[in-house]
């Protein structure tokens, strides 16, 4: 009598299908877990890259702004809704602020840039006409508004110091900005994180001088 075990083909096929389903489920779960890990890693890498890029832009803005503040004589005006004005030099040695000696730093442009604007009369004008138009302003003038008047007349030029700026804020410890030998400037840069980086910079006027 043949007592060898009998193989049931149907049972073997059912077991193979079950193993296949189990292996597929394990593969799917492992794939989902791996995908979640890779997504988290990619998100962190992107956030780190964005932060480094924002800090690099902020540092570039600091260096470019310092090129104006270090030789400047004083802070003429501070309006954190618009920007601030610097007295760059006293070319006429009159101890008064003339139009071409002003640098307007616009910090809240709608396009997220920080720009510097100066008065530049047409090159075609004779030197005498340019000098006569370079009038002195009173110490209590609204220097930013004066720059806007010159812009409207087509007599200004500007350059961009920084872009992708979320906000900028200037602080000084004196009642009158002209008396401040040092000021603090905080930049918050745009990036894709929930907490964009802010950078505090300090600027001084080694040759501080207040106008008449």
Question: Top keywords for this entry?
Answer:
about 210 residues; alpha+beta; 5-stranded antiparallel β-sheet; 3-stranded antiparallel β-sheet; 3 helices; 10 strands; about 25% strand
Are there runs of 5+ residues with pLDDT below 50, and where? none
**Count of domain modules:** 1
| Through-space gap between termini | 126 Å
Number of strands: 10
Largest sheet: 5 strands, antiparallel
Strand content: 25-35%
Helix coverage percent of residues? 25-40%
What would the average pLDDT be, to the nearest integer? Answer: 84
Describe this structure in words.
The chain is an alpha+beta fold. The protein contains 3 helices and 10 strands; from the N terminus they run H-E-E-E-E-E-H-E-H-E-E-E-E. The strands form 3 sheets. The protein has a 5-stranded antiparallel beta sheet. The radius of gyration is 32 Å and the shape is elongated. 25% of the residues are buried.
Secondary-structure map with pairings?
Elements: H1 9-69, E1 74-79, E2 83-87, E3 97-98, E4 102-106, E5 114-119, H2 127-133, E6 136-137, H3 143-152, E7 156-162, E8 165-171, E9 182-189, E10 198-204
Antiparallel strand pairs: 1-2, 2-4, 3-6, 4-5, 5-7, 8-9, 9-10
